[in-house]
Amino acid sequence: MKDEVADVLYKFLREAVHITLCIASVIIYGVFGVTLGSLLSATLLMTYLLNEYMRLKGFTTPLTKLYRHLLNNREKRCIAKSPLFLGLSVLVLMGVLPFEEASIAVLITGLGDGFTGILRIGVPKDSKNLWRIKTSLAGFTLATLAVSLFYEPYTVLVACSASSIVEALILKIDDNVSVPLTAGMLTYGSKHIGLNLTLKNLIEGLDISMYLTIRELWLNTPVSSLTPLLVIFDTILPLTYFAIAFFTLIKRGKLNGILILTTLTLSTFTLVSCIKNSFRRHRPPTAIKQDYSFPSNHATWAGTFTGFFYNSSKWLSGSIYALSVLTVFEALALGNHWFSDMVAGFLIGLFITSPFNRFSEF
Q: Taking a C-beta distance cutoff of 8 angstroms, is the pair 191, 101 a contact?
């Protein structure tokens, strides 16, 4: 038991080191410049290679003592290539791309790959392929939200979406090469080809079109008399999610499910609140709420509970689906959110929570 706990802790530490190295690389290149940063990176890579050679020959060095417990069984028998590939990828990106785009690609690699790795440690497997997809989507969703705080969001979205697909696939090439190169090419290409602007214009145009269409349909039909009822729904829907979920989990004795769902809900709520205050997107002109619009907290809750319970009993998952549809409907009908607010919020909750849905199975 003690060895199993230590093994899990070392796996978490390995992913934390991965994230730290990527962030440190960006800082070093930013402080010392590309030339000196590249020289320092090359020196560290050569030192690492020499140290690995000595380790395989049976020698123990101070550097080996620092990371030997982080190696997996395969790496203990040969050169541990992951740090080498990551270092070479950073070296190539920083040498080829402008510093800003290269830094974003490195951050996407560190955070996306790192968060995905952490999730794969703590989340039980179901189908191997589905497990890889769910953890990749969750990890790179977190990376998208984090990196979007520092760079143009539509470019980050394109790069992270493609990188999550690469991470989910079982490729012969190491993901410390495939992910950073994918992120780098799409970060640079999206900005300079104009894909980010095309995506931005498409989404904003769709938002306006959907808003005007829904408002016209809502105001010119008898169902507009339901507006006071929808205002009440807007208040009680979040409580309804919790009531149904907790009642069912308590009844089934799923205490670990309650703890995990509570943690996920509070975490996504905090994350979305921070994103709201960072993006500062204003609500539609008819909104009755005054805070920022993107992404929607209500839609995030809908996605969170849908992701957690979609594999549960038919009546429970069906109830959550119905509440989710009602949540989206009332927010758009009342004009409280743009369409993209709802889509983004729902997908954030869904992607982050879906790897944990096995804790709700009964």
A: yes
Residues with Cβ within 8 Å of 272's Cβ and at least 6 positions away in sequence, in order, are 295, 297, 300, 345, 348
Q: pLDDT band at 137, cuts 50/70/90? A: very high
235-277 pLDDT, tens digit each: 888 888 888 888 888 877 777 778 888 888 888 888 888 888 8
Q: How many CA atoms lie within 13 A of 205 on its CB side?
A: 6
Closest CA to 183 of 92, 271, 274: 92
Residue 181's contacts (CB-CB under 8 Å, 6 or more residues apart) are 89, 92, 93
Between helices 99-108 and 153-168, what is the axis angle to 10°?
50
Q: Sign of the CA dihedral 257, 258, 261, 267?
A: negative
Query: Which residues, at least 6 apart from 126, have a Cβ–Cβ distance to it below 8 Å?
Result: 358
Contact present, 298 and 234 (Cβ < 8 Å): yes
Residue burial 280-295, b: 16+ Cβ < 10 Å; e: rest: eeebbeebeeeebbbb
pLDDT at 127: 61
Is residue 17 a contact partner of residue 126, using CB atoms and an 8 Å limit? no
- Give the whole-angstrom CA distance, residue 100 versus residue 218: 45
Let me know: does 134 contact 114? Beta carbons within 8 Å. no
DSSP 77-97: HS--HHHHHHHHHHHHHHHHS
240 Cβ contact partners less than 8 Å away, ≥ 6 residues apart: 323
- Domain ranges in the chain? 2-193, 195-360
What pLDDT sits at residue 124? 66
DSSP 204-237: HHHHHHHHHHHHHHHHTSGGGGGHHHHHHHHHHH
Number of Cα atoms under 13 Å in the Cβ half of residue 129? 2
CA separation for the pair 227, 70 (Å, rounded): 58
String of DSSP letters for 14-63? HHHHHHHHHHHHHHHHHHHHHHHHHHHHHHHHHHHHHHHHHHHTT---HH
